[in-house]
Amino acid sequence: MVQIHALLLIGPTGAGKTPLGEEMEKRGILGKKAHHFDFGENLRKAAKNLLPLNHQERLLIQHILLEGRLLKPEEFFLAKNILSSFLEQRNFKPDHLLILNGLPRNIYQATALTSLIEISYLVFLEVDLQTLKIRLKKDPAGDRKGREDDHEAYLAKKLDWFQRETLPLIDFYEKRNTKIITIKVNEEDTGQTLYKKLITLI
């Protein structure tokens, strides 16, 4: 696979990554056609046999989703297979931009992807716990319906996990000369308002 240029979205649950990713796909960014790769959504598609994976891989993904955990290092080939399938289905071209959402989520995954993907931009959607609680209740972007992992009891735990595991990606990519962009998210932000903020910063 030829190395792909990408923009990585990071932020805790409810920050607005998916609505912003969808908006970039719809409108393009940096003068390029953009493809929004939502890893969680594609994992769920793989579990439902909507992606070309074999039976054993599909069972493993179903098991991972049931446990609600990240891929182990020995399972990370699944992420690469799912990403390859996505790029093929989208007829991804060298001058297109890949929007990564949910992958990589820690330093190990980022390191494993360096030979395939060059992250040119990292966009950090910064939001505090109180604002997150309000956003998840209001659902301003309309993308939380049916999500069973949005209970308030899990929020602090998920935010803590994000700060420990995913936030260090900022330092990791800064050392690789990736442009880091921080967007402050408020309780009313949608994909459209986040996109407007992004284009003033990028």
UniProtKB/TrEMBL annotation:
It is found in: Cytoplasm. Keywords: ATP-binding, Kinase, Nucleotide biosynthesis, Nucleotide-binding, Transferase. The keyword Kinase applies. Its EC number is 2.7.4.3. It catalyses: AMP + ATP = 2 ADP. SUPFAM superfamilies: P-loop containing nucleoside triphosphate hydrolases. One of its GO terms (molecular function) is AMP kinase activity. One of its GO terms (cellular component) is cytoplasm. It is an enzyme of class 2 (transferase). Belongs to the adenylate kinase family. Monomer. This is Adenylate kinase. It comes from Caldimicrobium thiodismutans.
